[in-house]
Specification:
By secondary structure, the chain is mainly beta. The protein folds into 2 domains: 284 residues, 3 Solenoid (Pectate Lyase C-like), CATH 2.160.20; 87 residues, Immunoglobulin-like (Sandwich), CATH 2.60.40. The chain is built from 3 helices and 40 strands. The strands form 7 sheets. It has a 10-stranded parallel sheet with strand order 1-2-5-8-12-16-20-23-26-30. It has a 9-stranded parallel sheet with strand order 3-6-9-13-17-21-24-27-31, with no helix packed on it. Strand 1, helix 2 and strand 2 form a beta-alpha-beta unit. The longest helix has 8 residues. The two termini are 23 Å apart.
């Protein structure tokens, strides 16, 4: 899965430091440092820690969690959400950010287990968190996916926050998918928050976030709790041009002398001075949510329905709601005009997986399976049409030997263009 790049540029402290520092460097994992934490500890302002494809977990490379981003102006970048996987294996929060101008992008963030901030915990400053899949994390008290504390003002955009849960439903804590607290003025835009067991986003205390152009999808536990957004925050909070679908209790809940549950359309007109406007109710018509393909289908109500004051999408049309623009409604790799769809399922797999392929123009496709050392394990050729086609690949090498558990790379080449897709074999 490749998330669409942000449609605007906001200068952060990190970018200013990069421009000013002649000493800025890339610290590569695992080429230069075996562990991400070691690279972060060595980084100075303006450096970027670049993480190659692989699973980074206590049981694989001895990674220690939480990863702590404590140096201003340091960026942490993965190879892509399906390629660089940060798995805390229930040992704590996955990533903590506590310095100005830090940036976290292009990862799958999973396996977090903490009191506050299961996946990502923003303790202070103006971090940028973008283009991540934040999935299957738990918290006991606050923020199962992302927790933002007082005075922090992060920019959270183009992420999928999916199936993050309350560690203990009986416990008095009430963590939500994205939780904004204190006096935070976070900007939360172009995200998909779905299938958590509480509210998709909670804005409380004296926080005043701007929440726009997001999809809130099937959050909550039926008849118990769960709205798309729970807004118990400062009146300056902006909730605009979001799409709500299937949330357990309501789209939005506000405090107007008492708890008031509203669908999105009613919330728009509930109080014309409350900064809640432009929101929609409706199924976003995601391409294949069961297999983590969250692109929009052609009739999605999210298309061209975002905030009209937002920058235009990359196709020159009004902003779409959610992390993907419709012109990229399939997993088109960056820089490729030939490949329209590449998907593998199941992924992770045990014995075999199905590779789905569709080309914009018919042609021959060479498909190879490599290990992380670059050794070719399988090779196939396929004459692909403009229609979707499937190929079954077994978890074996050319000699028929079963592959060991781990990360492998599927490469596809056609017409001089080459793209890759990671797959994970378990057991």
């Amino acid at each position: 899965m490749q998330l669409v790049p942000p449609t605007r540029f906001l200068p952060t402290l990190a970018s200013l430091l990069l421009a000013a520092s002649a000493e800025a460097a890339q610290l590569r994992v695992p080429q230069d440092y075996l562990r991400i934490g070691e690279a972060l500890a060595a980084a100075v302002s303006g450096d970027e820690v670049v993480v190659a494809a692989g699973i980074y977990a206590p049981s694989t490379n001895g990674e220690v969690y939480p990863l702590q981003m404590t140096t201003a102006g340091v960026a942490l970048r993965g190879a892509g959400v399906e390629q660089s996987i940060l798995d805390a294996e229930a040992s704590g929060t996955v990533v903590e950010l506590s310095a100005a101008g830090t940036r976290l992008r292009n990862f799958t963030i999973t396996g977090g287990d903490a009191n506050w901030g299961g996946g990502v915990h923003v303790l202070s400053a103006d971090a940028e968190i973008d283009h991540n899949l934040i999935r299957d994390n738990v918290a006991l008290n606050r923020g199962s996916g992302i927790n933002v504390q007082a005075a922090a003002a992060p920019w959270i955009h183009h992420n999928v926050c999916w199936e993050n849960l309350d560690k203990d439903l009986v416990h008095g804590g009430d963590p939500h998918g994205i939780q904004i607290g204190g006096s935070s003025t976070a900007l939360v835009e172009h995200n998909l928050v779905g299938r958590g067991d509480s509210n998709g986003l909670f804005a409380g205390e004296s926080s005043a976030p701007t929440v726009r152009n997001n999809i809130f999808f099937e959050n909550g536990t039926p008849a118990v709790r769960g709205r798309g957004i729970c807004a118990l925050s400062d009146p300056a909070t902006v909730i605009a041009y979001n799409l709500f679908s299937g949330n357990a209790i309501s789209a939005i809940v506000i405090n107007d002398g008492g708890i008031v549950n509203l669908n999105a359309m009613d919330a728009n007109d509930y109080n014309l001075a409350d900064n809640i406007y432009g929101n929609l109710d409706g199924d976003p018509l995601l391409l294949d949510a069961a297999n983590l393909d969250f692109h929009l289908t052609p009739t999605s109500p999210a298309i061209d329905a975002g905030d009209p004051t937002s920058p235009l999408d990359t196709d020159g049309t009004r902003a779409d709601i959610g992390p993907y623009v419709y012109s990229a409604n399939t997993a088109t790799p960056a820089g490729s005009s030939r490949f329209e769809l590449i998907a593998a399922a199941p992924n992770p797999f045990t014995t075999e997986f199905s590779l789905r392929i569709r080309l914009r123009r018919p042609g021959a496709v060479t498909i190879e399976l490599h290990d992380l050392r670059g050794r070719r394990l399988q090779s196939e050729q396929l004459l692909a049409s403009g229609l979707e086609q499937q190929l079954i690949l077994a978890g074996r090498d050319r000699r028929g030997h079963s592959l060991a558990a781990g990360v492998y790379i599927v490469s596809l080449e056609s017409g001089g263009e080459r793209v890759t897709l990671p797959v994970v074999k378990v057991r």
